[in-house]
User: Fold these one by one.
Assistant:
Number 1:
Amino acid sequence: MSSITLLGAGNLATHLAISLHQAGHTITQVFSKTKKSAQLLSNRLNCPYTTDLKSILPSDIAIIAVNDDAIKEVEKHIFFPKIHTSGSTSIDCLNGKNTGVLYPIQSFSKNKTVDLSETPICIEANNDMFLQQIETLARSLSTYVLPLESQQRGHLHLSAVMACNFSTLMYVLAEEICSKHAIPFDLLHPLIEETAKKVVDMNPSTALTGPAKRGDDSVMKQHAHLLESDQEKKQIYQLLSRSIAKRNL
Amino acid sequence: MSSITLLGAGNLATHLAISLHQAGHTITQVFSKTKKSAQLLSNRLNCPYTTDLKSILPSDIAIIAVNDDAIKEVEKHIFFPKIHTSGSTSIDCLNGKNTGVLYPIQSFSKNKTVDLSETPICIEANNDMFLQQIETLARSLSTYVLPLESQQRGHLHLSAVMACNFSTLMYVLAEEICSKHAIPFDLLHPLIEETAKKVVDMNPSTALTGPAKRGDDSVMKQHAHLLESDQEKKQIYQLLSRSIAKRNL
């Protein structure tokens, strides 16, 4: 079991800290520049907190789970082994003898608990010994741990943005249309759940269905007509339909 | 229980027929212009089939579950109560004393069974008596049945295309990126499942996360750079990121 200094108190930091705590690790201290967040999380973990980077307590490992653009500023103050948790930030962003990355591939929200044991975690380190240490830590949280270099992790993070944020935008657009026409959005809930299941059970391109896939021009024209008063949605509809049709050749 | 003539033998027709059969209705006959499909489905239902529209056997109700553009051609040959199952086709497409619609909001694939009992079904009819009859039929299949007029159904179908087909395209794009960079796509499976769960548990706009939502320009620039050699994905990335950012104002 390790002693861990946690930097950050946002969604990812909170989920990670609680899972680490439950796995038997000791959180030595929580840092957040926002006092309220630091207090809240340290209360849950029964450990001290600080809002001052100059008062960071040393431990076996520091986990830097702050916003990407704050990593450099934070890491400068840490003089013991440290890892960050960012999908899109290179390991080179960290300086020191033992540096690494632990990137859980999941979307974390404030009021929704996520089971980290089923969350894949990508790891990286600047030396083999430290990679082993990070792997042990990651395996105490999840059954699916994979070493991945920074460059590949960047592409994985981009894929995750498409698979998660952009698909959520599609649901937002659908919800806006339903709401405008007084249609209960929950009519789409089983379709949304089934779509995700299908993509996981089959592969995504096999799961593609619908007018663009079938080349059904009359339905696509009808949809474009329905979107006449919403040029943004129309543009998205047409670009994505062309993209589906292209993959059908 | 009703006797039903089924027109069509595709994915939707097959799922519907089997659920109707299991619910205790009698499938009088299956029609498909493709002999193989007609034979296959009629074997599963233990009922006769035809490929000839002039040999349609009458029953309590005809369910027209053919491609949208074939509905008009098929319905001309039916001289008893009839309904179609299309999301994007008006009820006016059908002629006769008793006409209606039964639209299950789900995506059906060949080799994947879907539980219709949890699938919302929208219904419509050209008269109240027939609406009641369709409602009884729909309620024998699903617990969630909602009367919806053709115009609203058109908007619902458009929403379903966005929520299902377009989100699947996002998974396809993610899979293409992973595949190109030798990253196992199953790393994204838990994220995909969690995203769908979040949209259903919260509402979609609350579930939005990621660089465009946070206004993280440096990550978005980095992603655009990674997509430099794939102009189509770059265009989609930028259009959808702008759309997310717009909703964040």
Number 2:
Amino acid sequence: MELLEKRIQRDGIVEDADVLKVDGFLNHQIDTALIDQLGAEFARLFGDAGATKVVTIEASGIAIAYATALHLGVPLVFAKKAKTRNVAGGVFATRVLSFTHGSSYDVVVSRRFLTPADTVLIVDDFLANGNALAGLLDIAQQAGAAVAGIGIAVEKGFQEGGARIRARGYRVESLAIVQSMDPATGAIEFAPNA
Amino acid sequence: MELLEKRIQRDGIVEDADVLKVDGFLNHQIDTALIDQLGAEFARLFGDAGATKVVTIEASGIAIAYATALHLGVPLVFAKKAKTRNVAGGVFATRVLSFTHGSSYDVVVSRRFLTPADTVLIVDDFLANGNALAGLLDIAQQAGAAVAGIGIAVEKGFQEGGARIRARGYRVESLAIVQSMDPATGAIEFAPNA
């Protein structure tokens, strides 16, 4: 999506060969008009996929997932990061390994909000190693819900998450796929067709 | 706001005299059409207050704060809960005491996103004891930003937060103020004029 690629080129900060900061418009300060357009694009891409709910994980995916759900006219469910290993009953729970923080955390969704009658569209701001996404897919599977697809704002194409999830047969639509970054020059290369 | 009060009456769950669950439409599963209307109402109420940014705290306030910011045509900044006491430089940080979890946590906002040129509208889903709100006000003060006001979806009128913040001179607009709840009958009474 050219709009997003241009914005990343303009305002993204290449901190090193692996770390791209987009916190000026995507996940700390949020350009609401931009996010609304990204949500509209996901709604267009997945408009015929029969999603009954959009699902994301707190916190940075909430705005873009909300925008998508609003455009699709369906509810948003966001998975919560649980504080403890012993999660109370009434929830679907899964463990997510965080490379960023070098730790793992539990993620939960109330059983009241996902059922076998649901078809979920999973939306998140970033896809790198794909661990958070795998956790959401696990929760959808526990609920018996179908998966309409996965919408990602920024995919790091040089990490394995996208290939791993696509190899499992899921439709993944990433609005921008970063192919490489040069911390010396700040240059960012995108994969074609994103 | 009658729309919100009716929805709370219909779908809110009174767990005990202090605990109201609205996770079916407000802060776990999110009714996106409802949240859009709440955001539009905050934008109407504070439309002349000169807000340059909407500020909230992750995670459950993000959707309603995003909706408000979108309607106002300004960016959203959400404060992040920090993992450690030693927060890296470049941020405004404050400590928030959580009664819910019996602990405290640090909240941070990058210094790049709040300046003395900003006038912030603070938006959150709940106001009870007011500690999270006091933290956001502290961050605004550290940044030298003006405060246009505070928009709250559901205020617990029987806890001290609202009175404490109003006594400091801030304009607080709560779309529904719960006056009392009866866990035996599930009855919920609202304060007038909300």
